[in-house]
Amino acid sequence: PYCPFWHHIRSYCERADELKDRILFIKYEDMKR
């Protein structure tokens, strides 16, 4: 019944250094402006 959440997080962490120039973190409040 659970999604493979930790597998998804782990795969992100493994590739985070490669993708750090392509990842955009934005908050909902910033999008409303």
UniProtKB/TrEMBL annotation:
A Pfam family assignment: Sulfotransfer_1
InterPro entries: P-loop_NTPase, Sulfotransferase_dom
Domain Sulfotransferase: 2-33
Xref: SUPFAM superfamilies: P-loop containing nucleoside triphosphate hydrolases
GO molecular-function terms, A-Z: sulfotransferase activity
Protein name: Sulfotransferase domain-containing protein
Species for this entry: Bracon brevicornis
Lineage of source species: Eukaryota, Metazoa, Ecdysozoa, Arthropoda, Hexapoda
